[in-house]
Write the structure tokens for this entry.
Amino acid sequence: MRAPLIAGNWKMNGSLELVATFAEELSRTALPGGVEVALMVPFPYLEVARSRLPETVGVGAQTLSDQPSGAFTGEVSGGMLADLGVQMVLVGHSERRTLYREDDAAVLARVRAALGVGLVPVLCLGETLEERDAERTEAVVLGQLEAVLDALTADERQRLVLAYEPVWAIGTGRTATPDQAQQVHAAIRARLASYDAQLAETTKVLYGGSMKPSNAVELLAQPDIDGGLIGGASLQVDDFLAICHSAG
Ligand code: 13P
């Protein structure tokens, strides 16, 4: 079965001090058994996060270059992340898609770059409010999914984690209801099954968008929700730990 994964996405927030706080708290608090936990921190904090967090806590980056090396000022390659002991990387987060204009081709190139160096890509999918209101949610989300999966081999597809993050629920305090989220997660899983039944069985599909201690239990109880990608609430160690325990 799929072990739940609770991943915090700090976005462009945090500090060395916050890394230290998390390292301290996560080291002295027992994490719930059977729950995988990870933190996606800004690039400058990856190394200290990897060295100070307990080994059982995964460390992830929030993006990567689509290129392996070269004259790309300001970019960070997957190889550099792997060098630091980083295990996973977000790809296709809606903030990257919209603010940095990463389209499906750019997302695919980054997924390939991550897979090429052994990082787990956490592929984010989600519709805008406008798209939801136009009843295009599944078309948009499954389109984003297929743009990547169609280009990968069966082996490569097995190495992804997916995250459904409705854009209208990110940072807005407005969460998808458990039913709304489950419906999209079920559609994602059905599409995975159209590639191969085992892929549908094993792929984790996380929910993200204003997940917090007060709504995590209900969301995580849905059969096709395998964990959470937590933004704002992952900046407070108590809230983050409470969500981890909701998954246990
Ligand atoms: P919030 O939890 O702040 O809504 O952010 C969700 C998100 O974008 C995680 O990647």
